[in-house]
Amino acid sequence: MVQTIAWRDDQVVMIDQRKLPHQEKYVVCKNHRSVIRAIQALVIRGAPAIGVAAAMGVALGALKIRTGDRALFKARFHAVCSDMVAARPTAANLAWAVERMRRVVNGKNNEEVEKLKALLVSEAQGILEEDIAINQAMGRHGQRLLKNGDRVLTHCNAGALATGGYGTALGVVRAAVAAGKQIQVVADETRPFLQGARLTAWELVEEGIPVTVISDNAAGYLMQQGQVDAVIVGADRIAANGDVANKIGTYMVAVLAKTHKVPFYVAAPLSTIDISTKTGAKIPIEQRDQKEVTHFLGKRIVPERAAAQYPAFDVTPHRYVSAIITEKGVISPPFKAGIRHFFSAA
Fold this sequence. Notes:
This protein has helices at about 30-40, 45-65, 70-85, 90-105, 115-140, 170-180, 195-205, 220-225, 250-260, 290-295, 335-345, and strands spanning about 5-10, 10-15, 25-30, 150-155, 185-190, 210-215, 230-235, 235-240, 245, 265, 275, 295, 300, 315, 325, 330. The two termini are about 30 Å apart. By secondary structure, it is of the alpha/beta class. It has two domains: about 5-135, translation initiation factor eif-2b, domain 1 (Four Helix Bundle (Hemerythrin (Met), subunit A)); about 140-345, Translation initiation factor eif-2b, domain 2 (Rossmann fold, 3-Layer(aba) Sandwich), CATH 3.40.50. Helix 2 (about 45-65) runs antiparallel to helix 3 and helix 2 (about 45-65) packs antiparallel against helix 5 (about 115-140).
C-alpha cells in the first residue's frame, strides 16, 4: 500500500500525485505555508488526505513559532490555523482536522509552549494513524455490499492516495478482495486532473486488482450494456441530509446509476459529514483556474479566445445515493435520521 504522507524529522513528506504514474517523487514541506501550497497545487488531494496534511501543516507551523510566551504562541498558532482552513473550501476534513488541532491548544491553559508543540505533533501523527484504521473499518463494513464477481465503477480517486492509507471507496474494494471476492474495477478517467486514469489505475495495478480505465463519457454506455454492478465513490463533504459533494462528474454518474438501477454507494468517514450544513445547496464549491481545462501537459488545447469553467466538485442529491458507508457502519435512507443516529452514538 502506497504511503501518501508521513511526518519525518519534523518535516511533512508527501508523494507528488501530479507526477504519477510516470514518476514516484516526493515533496518535502518544511513549514505550514509549503503544506498549504502543496494542498492547493494538488500535490496531495482527497478529503481525508487533505485533513491529515492540514493537521501536520498546523503542527509544522507551531514548531516554527519562536516564543516561550503562551499567549503570544497561541495568537500565532491560531493565525496558522486560519491560513490552513483557507487552503481549499469544499473538503470538510480539512476544517475538521484544523479544529481538532485547535482543541489541543485551547484545552491546555497551563502547559509550556514546548509541551504544546509536542502535543500537536503527537495529535497530527495520531490523526494519520486513525485515518488508516477508520478506512480499514469502512472497508470491512462496505465489502458486505459487494458480491463475488461484481464490476465496480469508481469516479476520481478514493484510494490510499486520497487518504492516510488504504482508501475509502477503494478500501471497500480492497476489503472485498481480501475477503476472497473476485472484483473488477472500472475507473472513470476523471477529467481534467485524470485522478482515475493516473491514480486509481496505478494503485490497483500495483496491487494486482483488475482495472479498466474508461473515458468519463463512457459510463452510461457500460451501464446500459449491463457491465456495471455497483458504483462506489468517495466524498469531500456530506450534508446533514445525505447530499454528497464529490469530484465534478459524480452527479452525472449518480443519475446514470439511478436510471439503470445500479446501486450508488458513497464511502466516507464520519469526519466528512458536516452536520452543520443542512443540505448540499449550502456546500461551497471550489472554482479552480480555467487553465486546468484549457491546457494539458503545459500546452493549450482549446482556441485562444475560448473561455473555460472548472468547478472542482458537484453535489449529488441524497435521493440518488443507495447507502453511505462509514467506519461505524452503513447508513441507509432516510439519511437525515441515520446520520443523526450515528452522530448521537459517536
